[in-house]
From TrEMBL:
One of its GO terms (biological process) is adult locomotory behavior. SUPFAM superfamilies: POZ domain. It comes from Panagrellus redivivus. This is BTB domain-containing protein. InterPro entries: BTB/POZ_dom, BTB_POZ_domain_cont_9, SKP1/BTB/POZ_sf. Residues 22-94 form the BTB domain. GO terms for cellular component: cytoplasm. PANTHER family: BTB/POZ DOMAIN-CONTAINING PROTEIN 9, BTB_POZ DOMAIN-CONTAINING PROTEIN 9.
């Protein structure tokens, strides 16, 4: 018999792509992916920050790595205001050490406002 932890992991895993108790729909082309905000925010701190921004219009951009994650999410979910805010913050906090990572991200996301900056 499985212990409580194994059972919990299995039950939560069964929610993957399930519409059961889903409170988020992510649309990719014609495909709808069902998700659960409590799982996303527990597993991805950047997603929690983005959700807070969606609800309150405020966000704390704690460090370069978090900013990059937030930029990716803002780009994917077409959160234009958040993306622009994060781009300006990344420009402000970038250093010689982080510039190559910023350029790589700009190229991957096809963000000309950053490729021209770097």
């Amino acid at each position: 018999m499985a212990d409580g932890k194994e059972r919990l992991v299995k039950e939560i895993g069964n929610l993957y792509l399930s519409d059961k108790a889903s409170d988020i729909k992510i649309t990719v082309g014609d495909v709808i992916l069902f998700a659960h905000s409590v799982i996303l925010t527990a597993r991805c701190p950047a997603f929690e920050l983005v959700l807070k921004w969606i609800y309150t219009g405020t966000i704390e951009l704690p460090d370069f790595d978090s900013d990059i994650e937030i930029l990716r999410l803002a780009h994917i979910y077409e959160l234009t205001d958040l993306k622009e805010l994060d781009i300006e913050h990344l420009k402000f906090i970038s250093t010689i050490d982080t510039m190559s990572r910023l350029l790589n991200e700009a190229i991957i996301l096809d963000l000309t406002e950053l490729t021209q900056y770097t």
